[in-house]
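Model: You mentioned two targets. I'll fold them one after the other.
Researcher: Yes, keep them separate.
Model: Target one:
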Amino acid sequence: MARYINPFSDWSFKRIFGQEYSKDLLIEFLNQLLLGEQHITDVKFKDKEMLPETKDQRGIIYDVFCETDTGEHIIVEMQNRSQTYFIDRSLYYASKTIVDQGIRGQWDYHLTPVYVICFMNFDVDENTPKKFRTDVVLADKDSGEVYSNKIRLIYLVMPLFKKKEEECTTFLDCWIYNLKHMETLEQMPFEAQHKIFKRLAEIADSKTLTKEEQEKYDNSMMVMWDNYAVYKHAEEKGMKKGIEKGIEKGIEKGIEKGEKKRNKEIALNLLTYNTPIDVIAKSTGLSIEEIKNLEQHN
């Protein structure tokens, strides 16, 4: 049994970065990610579920949603597999948080900055820069000068972080190395240099989980493995169908159709374990409304 939990399951990610008792980890990580720009001393967790204003709109469930002591809104998302329109989704999250700052009635359009930080635990496609970290800002096209600091998106492509332990020269390098390799580690590296990693080791130690926590962790890992299997099966099936028909579009259609059907099967299975609807929605990509319909007709 691995000593440390896999940080990229839904439950584990929230345990490390999305709980009041572990927010010191989130603050330290954000300060290293935004080194030279921000120094955060405290965060206040906000409601991760944003309900739609009307029934024909779609709600949002964030992995981590918080506000800093100086007013910035920060969304942290973890995505384990490639998803159609994932970049668009992150832009939507940022835009929605900007719009939600409006107060009904009088409003002077003063905005506080919104940061969306995306852990992408999958390799990127040909349309995405082939580098570990990509920072997106609103900037002048010709000069590259930042035009507004109100929206900031940071994409971290974990498979593209290739540094070995001895090559990690910055505090942020150490963070990323530990997160990427955590499930295979016997001892948390860099504890001597940075005491926060001793705290990370305590939070992530699988031997300290209660029986209830272990069940939740096992359940989240089952969802992660099932989702990966679904994705690979749908991808292979879609590719075969596309080749047989000689139509490139058949690949994408086959993937989406197979994935949707299997995600509904996973959702139904998780409902039998009384898994919270927000966790099911995050794990399967189904909307809250779709899951509630499945629950009603099951």
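Model: Target two:
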Amino acid sequence: MAIARFKDLVLDAPPDDAAGLSRFWAAVLGSTTTEGPKGYRVDARPGAPIETQLWVNPVPEPRTGKTRVHLDLRLPEPDVSPLVALGARIVSEPGVDPWWQLIDPDGNIFCAFLPSATPVAGPTPFELNVDCADALGLATWWADRLGGEVHQAEHKDYTWIEGAAGFPWDMWVFGPVPEPKSVKNRWHWDVTLVDADGPEPFVEAGATLHRSPDDDISWWVLGDPEGNEFCLFPRESR
């Protein structure tokens, strides 16, 4: 049984660029951005069945190194020029793999996949990717906390979860990479407790507690067994 559910996805940004980066992602997703008390909320595209939001939060530290978390988007047409016009830059084009790798205006990687048989109204998130050392181990760890089924790709080295509680996209993908985690991720996810009252079940299973609720925040900040940051919200939070 899941003890928590996926809540939303958060992107760190420089204070001077957070508003602009939220507008970029809102434009990519055909949506709007709204300033909140601690950052900028980017809503899902109007009419989209997925209501989960992205948040762009200002942080004091600049982006350094490669983040270990990124989004994959499905394109409505085999053309990334609209994304480039919004401020994205192309890193690589489809070849053996059917996607473009791009970076947003702050240098965060994301991938744009060729259209599938199911049409989409605009660039649409369908996967969340996490770099890791032990793909099966980390996917299993998260599935044990949030539920869902763990799958392994035949003849490939990545693993994914389908059906995690609250997870808004098709797949939560964990792919092994050779380099260790060395810097704070710019993307992180939030989860909300549904069957526990604090972070103890996560810590006892191998998570690291970085910060507890205080005068500034009402949630816990943790790292999973490979150090990926996430925020844990109490039941019935925002």
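Researcher: Noted. Anything on target two?
Model: The first strand starts at residue 4 and ends at 13.
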